[in-house]
Amino acid sequence: MNDKEKEEYLSYILSRKSSSKKNYYKESLELIKQFKSEHPDRSPSILLHACCIVCACWPLDFLKENGFDVTVMYNNSNIWPKEEYDHRLSELQRYIKERWHDEIKVIVPAYSYDEYEATVLKNRGNDPEGWTSCFGCYGERMNAAFQYADEHGFDFFTTVMTFSRQKDSQKINEIGLNLGRQYTHTKYFVSDFKKADGARKSEAICDEYCIYRQDYCGCKYSYQERHQEKK
Q1: Rounded CA gap, 174 and 7, in Å?
Q2: What 8-state DSSP symbol labels residue 133?
Q3: Among 41, 79, 165, 190, who pairs with 218 as Cys (CB 3.0-4.6 Å)?
Q4: Is the peptide bond before 128 cis (omega within 30 degrees of 0)?
Q5: What CATH class does 25-230 carry?
Q6: CA distance 30 to 24
Q7: Exposure string for 167-200, b = 16+ CB within 10 A, e = fewer
């Protein structure tokens, strides 16, 4: 990073501590209330992008408790290595089978880390985690899922990434709302799944179902940043 990029990054980090943030959790409750008022006789359909079951378990409970017909998309070519990708997918599928008895469909697009690294993550080696390369990664995966949701007539699309304490839910919702302008049918469902004690609820679910908890976001760079001795 050059000096200008460092300055922009530090300014962004400081902005994350600002008190003037939108409460996307409250906005999500208003969206639910509005839909029920306008469509009292049917459940809203939603496509939920999930990167892992640790982040997805509480959002699934939240959405189901609020009457959503949920489909999950595991669209994560950012995850490295393939064994890790497979492990997270296996845990996601196991939980849905045990907790939801397979009533929630899981869509799994093709995986291609090498291509993803060469295009979406091409500058990640020079960026810190949670900066512009990561924003591009969020947007790429969200957009692919959003497009699928719109083509298949879902009422809403959202992502579990607003659950993660390491990710900026303000930025993720901003990306989602911007993406939503491209689509004619599916609306972006704003969220902040960390709110309302989401972290504690997820932890309890993970303990109950003995869920694997990874210690890095997904890509090779985030793995190396967490495991310097293996870099």
Answers
A1: 22
A2: H
A3: 79
A4: no
A5: alpha beta
A6: 10
A7: bbbbbbbebbeebbeebeebbbbbbbbbbeebee
Looking at this protein, which amino acid is placed at residue 16?
A: R
Q: Report the C-alpha gap between 113 and 182 in whole angstroms.
A: 26
Sheet holding 45-49, edge to edge: 105-107, 69-73, 45-49, 156-159, 187-188
178-226 pLDDT tens trace? 999 999 999 999 999 999 999 999 999 999 999 999 999 999 999 999 9
Can you state the angle between helices 82-100 and 53-65, rounded to 10 degrees?
A: 30
Q: Which residue has the tokens 């509005």?
A: 34
CA 14 – CA 16 distance, rounded (Å): 5
- 30-37 long-range contacts (CB < 8 A, ≥24 apart) are 31/156, 31/189, 31/190, 32/66, 32/67, 35/155, 36/67
Within the chain, residue ranges assigned H as helices are: 3-15, 24-38, 53-65, 82-100, 113-119, 132-151, 169-180, 198-208, 220-226
| Distance separating alpha carbons of residues 156 and 97, to the nearest angstrom | 23
pLDDT tens-place string over residues 114-132? 999 999 999 999 999 999 9
* CA 173 to each of CA 50, 117, 167: distance values in angstroms, whole numbers, following the listed order: 15, 24, 11
- Please report the sign of the dihedral spanned by the C-alpha atoms of residue 84, residue 89, residue 91, residue 94: negative
